[in-house]
Structure formats: structure tokens, C-alpha cells
Task: inverse folding
């Protein structure tokens, strides 16, 4: 992921996304949550949940070898689930700021 860009994070679920009552996508660096998106920020379609990050949001990320991303959900029946933690690199950009 590059700072200052607008990536879309997409999770494929083993069930219909319409069964979600609550969802959070957390992005962490150095064991500190930098961004958190709730179900209201997400798009649900079929068995996928996705969220688009803004330039301002990705600019909050430091250039790091390890940016961690995880999805946690609560289903309508009360069951709570979590995805594996995905580790990605956050890459630097030459022109900083929003364009």
C-alpha cells in the first residue's frame, strides 16, 4: 500500500455479507490502531465486504515494513468472528500530501 493513495480493501467471506450486524476493519502499525472503519463505511455485496481508504487516511500511515489489517464481525445471530491478520508494507511517496 502506498501512502497518499486510495486503495480498496476487500475481504471475501465464507457467508453472505448481508448476515453481518456489525463489522470493523482495523489498520495497525507498531501495535497502535491508526485507522478503524466500521460497517457504515463499508460496501457489502454478495459474500464480500470492502472499504475504500482516502488519501488523508493513508497519509496517516508511516512508512513501515509491517502494516497490519484485520476484519472483525458480529453476525445477526450473535456469533463474533475475526479474520487472520494480514501484513502489508506501506510504501513511501515522493510528493507528500493530498493531490
Result:
Amino acid at each position: 500500500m502506498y501512502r497518499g493513495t486510495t486503495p480498496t480493501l476487500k475481504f471475501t467471506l465464507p457467508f453472505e455479507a448481508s448476515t453481518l450486524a456489525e463489522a470493523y476493519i482495523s489498520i495497525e502499525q507498531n501495535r497502535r490502531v491508526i485507522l478503524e472503519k466500521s460497517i457504515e463505511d463499508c460496501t457489502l455485496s454478495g459474500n464480500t465486504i470492502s472499504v475504500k481508504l482516502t488519501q488523508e487516511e493513508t497519509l496517516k500511515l508511516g512508512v513501515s515494513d509491517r502494516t497490519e489489517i484485520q476484519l472483525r464481525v458480529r453476525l445477526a445471530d450473535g456469533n463474533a468472528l475475526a479474520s487472520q491478520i494480514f501484513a502489508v508494507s506501506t510504501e513511501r511517496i515522493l510528493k507528500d500530501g493530498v493531490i
Summary: Residues 47 and 87 are 22 Å apart (CA to CA). The chain has one helix and eight strands.
